[in-house]
């Protein structure tokens, strides 16, 4: 296929790579880490599982009661009640009844306690009346009710977690349930990141004329930290060819992934794309996305490279849409399903056909229970409050000519992204 200077095929609109195509190329480019680490259950939180976890026990391990009540023989309480049975003992969680239930007998039982031999049914306390040494069971009962069976949750030999699983609180509990103190997880990729720009000052520094604070390194820190990668913060690099070159080489030598912000378009102080060209390989660098048209993706040596645009909203939008999935792939995580919801837009949304746009919105339910989305207001790629006030992206297809108030739109909730 013939490719123009931006790495796009010549049929792409305006010489920009369509978003789907950019995503596909990233999937093809990136390779997952290959080394594993053994970690304790606590340390496993947020890590990606690098083995199949097979249960070595049945869960529950023994038949037990789902209710406080009386363990009985099912066939003795199936007819119309009341049924009077003799109470011959008790089975508590951790203190089972060690005899066997005979005809006409019942055992007082608590939730989680072993169901005694000879019984197969538990009648909940609310359907019973205690009268000294006997219990009166009201009504008729299905044989087997309120009994939890061995292996009902997990059975011995069953695969309970697959490699690629992101270990969340439920998974930690599951590992504990089956008595596994440690698991194999994939090594965390190391991500070096820096900002470029002569106008950038540190957070504590006063601003001179034409200067702004470097905020991208903080949003990037937040997004990367949440993802659970190892971070190497390389600070701010000035807009000088040699400084950018040195930073690239240093970052690529110590990290699996290099992420930069700024200096990636075609201005006279933009050295990122040309340095990538010189020291590595550019896979593509112009995507039909808004915000974030200049987005350079490629490799430097063994490291994958993401040159994000400089504008604060562009950094975040391109990170979530392109870099985050790539990092998850590197982390060995199974692909996430993309959650897009339909909502009614409460505001008109302007859009010119050409680029797929991620506007920022506030998703909620109206009084009728319908999902509705409001714009956060000004949508310039420099307006960071549009991200800070939002809880979703409003996804506007490239070909859309705009959206009227009251029309349905697709939204991508931040929950799950952040
Ligand atoms: P650039 O892509 O370098 O041309 O930057 C585009 C816009 O983003 C300019 O207005 C920059 O001042 C701004 N910008 C670049 N880097 C940062 C940063 N680290 N923090 C905040 N704004 C930035
Ligand atoms: Mg710049």
Task: Summarize the structure in short.
The protein has 418 residues and is α/β, with parallel strands linked by helices.
Structure description:
- It is built from 7 helices and 26 strands.
- The chain is α/β, with parallel strands linked by helices and 418 residues long.
- The chain has 4 domains: 178 residues, MoaB/Mog-like domain (Molybdenum Cofactor Biosythetic Enzyme, Chain A); 58 residues, Molybdopterin biosynthesis moea protein, domain 2 (Alpha-Beta Complex); 85 residues, Molybdopterin biosynthesis moeA protein, domain 3 (Beta Complex), CATH 2.170.190.11; 73 residues, MoeA, C-terminal, domain IV (Beta-clip, Beta Barrel), CATH 2.40.340.
- A 6-stranded mixed beta sheet has the order 7-4-6-5-9-8, with no helix packed on it.
- Helix 1 packs across helix 6, helix 3 packs parallel to helix 6 and helix 4 packs across helix 5.
- The chain is elongated, with a radius of gyration of 30 Å.
- The two termini are 37 Å apart.
- The N terminus is likely disordered.
- The protein binds adenosine monophosphate (AMP) and magnesium ion.
- Magnesium ion binds next to loops.
């Amino acid at each position: 296929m013939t490719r123009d200077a931006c790495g796009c095929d010549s049929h792409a609109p305006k010489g920009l790579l369509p978003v789907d195509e950019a995503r596909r190329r990233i999937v093809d480019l990136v390779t997952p880490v290959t080394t594993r680490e053994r970690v304790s259950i606590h340390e496993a939180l947020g890590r990606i599982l690098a083995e199949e976890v097979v249960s070595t026990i049945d869960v529950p391990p023994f038949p037990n009661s789902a209710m406080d009540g009386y363990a009985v023989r099912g066939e003795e309480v199936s007819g119309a009640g009341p049924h009077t049975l003799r109470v011959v003992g008790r089975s508590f969680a951790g203190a089972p009844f060690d005899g066997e239930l005979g005809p006409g007998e019942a055992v007082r039982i608590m939730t989680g306690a072993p169901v005694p031999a000879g019984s197969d049914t538990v009648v909940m306390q609310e359907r019973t009346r205690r009268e000294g040494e006997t219990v009166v069971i009201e009504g008729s009962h299905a044989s087997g009710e309120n009994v939890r069976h061995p292996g009902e949750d997990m059975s011995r030999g069953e695969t309970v977690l697959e490699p690629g699983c992101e270990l969340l609180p439920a998974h930690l509990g599951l590992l504990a349930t089956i008595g596994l103190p440690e698991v194999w997880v994939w090594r965390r990729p190391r991500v070096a990141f820096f900002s470029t720009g002569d106008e950038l000052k540190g957070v504590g520094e006063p601003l001179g004329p034409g200067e702004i604070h470097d905020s991208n390194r903080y949003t990037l820190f937040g997004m990367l930290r949440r993802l659970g990668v190892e971070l190497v913060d390389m600070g701010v690099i000035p807009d000088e060819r040699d400084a950018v070159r040195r930073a690239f080489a240093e970052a690529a030598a110590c990290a699996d992934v290099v992420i930069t912000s700024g200096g990636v378009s075609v201005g006279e102080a933009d050295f990122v794309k040309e340095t990538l060209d010189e020291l590595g390989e550019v896979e593509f660098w112009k995507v039909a996305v808004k915000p974030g048209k200049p987005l350079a993706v490629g490799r430097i040596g063994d490291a994958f490279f993401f040159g994000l645009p400089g504008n604060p909203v562009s950094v975040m939008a391109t990170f979530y849409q392109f870099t985050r999935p790539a990092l998850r792939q590197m982390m060995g995580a199974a692909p996430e399903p993309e959650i897009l919801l339909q909502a009614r837009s409460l505001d008109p949304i302007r859009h010119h056909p050409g680029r797929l746009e991620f506007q920022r919105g506030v998703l909620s339910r109206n009084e009728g229970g319908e999902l509705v989305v409001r714009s956060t207001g000004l949508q310039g790629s420099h307006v960071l409050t549009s991200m800070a006030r939002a809880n979703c992206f409003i996804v506007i297809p490239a070909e859309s000519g705009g959206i009227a108030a009251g029309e349905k739109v697709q939204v991508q909730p931040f929950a799950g992204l952040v």
